[in-house]
Amino acid sequence: MTTAEDICVHARIHGRVQGVFYRAWTQRTAQALGLAGWVRNRRDGTVEALFRGSRQAVEEMLRRAEEGPPAARVERIDAREVPCDTADTPSGFEVRPTA
Question: Residue 74: what are its φ and ψ, rounded to 5°?
């Protein structure tokens, strides 16, 4: 459930994050934290995500994303807050096709 106090953060995760179940892990973790949004692979080898929820839950997601699933090796995360009224946010958290 989203509220007026929600924040939206667009993130780009760099490192060994494809072929290691990073998207599935992100979906499960985001759902456990009560976040809405999406995750997808990018053709440049990064993973892109949008997280929407309470500031505390989004910050916790970003903290966990620094490690990711066991086989991942995250080098860095570029994250920025974006206006929620312009963010393309589904009601749940989904895995999207590669862009």
Answer: -80, 125
